[in-house]
Each structure stands twice: as structure tokens, then as C-alpha cells.
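From the methods appendix. Each design record in this collection lists the discretized structure first, followed by the designed amino acid sequence. Records were kept in a plain field format so they could be parsed without special tools. The example shown here is representative of the layout used throughout.

RECORD:
C-ALPHA CELLS (138 positions):
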């Protein structure tokens, strides 16, 4: 009987540690690069290189800068962002300094896919949607 109890406790501990490991928060600090597929307005499709540098992370929260070339003016642009990692440890949400919102998912330890939407600024700027596939640089 004693062996049975020890075996059950050991299985429960292994299961609990496995569940905790699955929900461990990913460490995002670093430089992430890739390409974005962009739709500006209703008909202007393009691709561009993009870089996200996550500078600090504390628990679920993080902050960094996004770098890209703003079209059609070809202006090098840098925007700050702040974000949060959800409890499932895969879903990530963050907003940038230009009224945009990012929803991301970890597809691997060094792979991140992001959906970006920007609501536009009325007649000043059209809405925008982007898909980004980023890889952490080592």
C-alpha cells in the first residue's frame, strides 16, 4: 500500500510540474526581425522589413521599440510599445504609440507571429492591417 501511495504522489508531482512548465512565461527580451505583409486602406498591398526590440520584461509585462520604414515617404520610423503576455503563455497583446494594436502568438521559442491593426485617423490616414512573422536574432 505504501508503494502505491508513493507512486500516486510521484505521478501527481510530475503532472503538476509539467503543467507549471507549460504555463511558464516566455522571456521575450531581445531583437526580433522579419517581414510584414501590409494592407493600407482597401487596395495598397506591400511588404516591408520590420524589427521589434523588446528592451524590458517584468513578469507578464514588457516594453520595447518597433523599427520600420514608413511608406510611401521612405521615412525610417521608431515607435515605442507596451505589452502583456496572457496566462496561457502563448498569446500576447500590445499597443504602440501610434494608435495601433498587436495580437501575437508564440509559434516556437524564437518565433512570433503578429497581427497588427490600426484604426486610421479619419481622412488623415487610412486604416491598416499587417501580418508579421518574426524570428529572434541570436
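DESIGN:
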Amino acid at each position: 500500500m505504501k508503494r502505491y501511495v508513493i507512486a500516486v504522489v510521484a505521478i501527481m508531482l510530475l503532472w503538476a510540474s509539467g503543467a507549471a512548465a507549460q504555463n511558464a512565461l516566455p522571456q521575450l527580451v531581445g531583437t526580433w526581425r522579419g517581414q510584414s505583409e501590409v494592407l493600407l486602406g482597401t487596395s495598397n498591398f506591400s511588404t516591408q522589413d520590420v524589427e521589434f526590440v523588446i528592451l524590458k520584461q517584468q513578469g507578464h509585462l514588457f516594453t520595447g521599440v518597433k523599427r520600420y520604414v514608413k511608406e510611401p515617404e521612405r521615412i525610417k520610423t521608431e515607435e515605442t510599445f507596451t505589452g502583456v503576455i496572457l496566462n496561457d503563455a502563448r498569446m500576447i497583446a500590445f499597443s504602440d504609440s501610434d494608435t495601433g494594436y498587436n495580437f501575437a502568438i508564440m509559434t516556437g521559442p524564437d518565433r512570433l507571429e503578429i497581427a497588427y491593426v490600426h484604426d486610421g485617423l479619419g481622412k488623415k490616414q487610412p486604416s491598416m492591417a499587417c501580418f508579421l512573422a518574426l524570428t529572434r536574432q541570436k
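APPENDIX NOTE: The beta strands are 30-40, 44-58, 61-70, 75-85, 91-96, 100-108, 111-118, 128-136.
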